[in-house]
Structures are given as structure tokens and as C-alpha cells.
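Please describe what follows:
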Amino acid sequence: MRRGAAGLNPVQWLAVPMLMCIVAAILLAAPLRVFGFQAPEPMWAMVPAFAWGVIRPSVLAPFGLLILGLFFDGFWGGPIGLWALALLVVYAVVIALRNILSGQSRAMMLAWYAGCTALAMGVGYAFMIISELGRPSPLAMFWQFLITVALFPAADWLIERFEDSDVRFR
């Protein structure tokens, strides 16, 4: 028996990915060093920020991204609002481009995801310059960008799982 698309239960498509992002960030924040360098932390919340915008417009998603952004700001010790702003900007861009993104190939979706990740990193970079009156390391941001782009299969899975769940937004 073929299983259809999952329903849009807010717990399944909003709360579970949020918890998964938080748990993954906590688990992978272990102080491991390779050749004296600490591994860069991926921005786990980029997965739902991108996927939720592609799946459908929602009133709850921006609040979820705000919560995730504030969690990551506190967890990583960054300025309050840094990641919340970056995630909300990405979500707004994806919502605005939703009609263009629908039906694209995986390669194009990866390119859009990478572009949105670059946008989030750019917003974060500008926010850090303005709020801290200093410049973050471009090399560290580049590695964080690459690791975050490597999370695209998770965003693709989330989109595939829930994209056709609500026929009102096809």
C-alpha cells in the first residue's frame, strides 16, 4: 500500500524539526579538536528556515525561527537577535520566492539553499560588525557556511515529506 503525503500537523512539521535542531546542536557542540582546531558549528536552523518557507506560508514558522535563533544566540554566546534576524530574513526571502522554488530539481534547490545560507551568513556578518564593532573571522564563517550547506539533504527530506500535504498552497 502506497503511503500518501503526511498531514500538516504542527507538531510534526514545526516542533519536531525545532527539537531536532536543538538536540543536534547540543550533541555536536562537544569540545573536540582536530589538529588543534575546533570543528565549525553548522547552523542547524537553516534546514527548517528554508524548508518551512518552501512547504507553505505559516503564522507559526516565524515564531519557531525566532525561538531557534534566540536559542542559538544564547547557546553560542552571540549577540541576542543575531541568528533570529538571519533566519527570519531567509524565511521571508524563501516565502517571496516560493513560486519559483516549487518544482525545481534537487540541484537547483541545493543552489537556492546555498544562496539562502550565504544570505544568512551575510546578515550575521553585518549584524556582528554593527553590534560588536568588530569583524568575525571570514575563514570561520566560510567553514560554517560549507558545513551548513552540507545539511541540505535534511532540508530536502523535510520538503519532500510535507510539501504536498496542504492542497491549498499548490
User: Anything to note?
Assistant: Helices lie at 10-27, 46-55, 60-76, 82-96, 98-101, 106-132, 138-149, 152-162. The chain has one domain: 10-27+38-160. Confidence is low (pLDDT under 50) at residues 1-6.
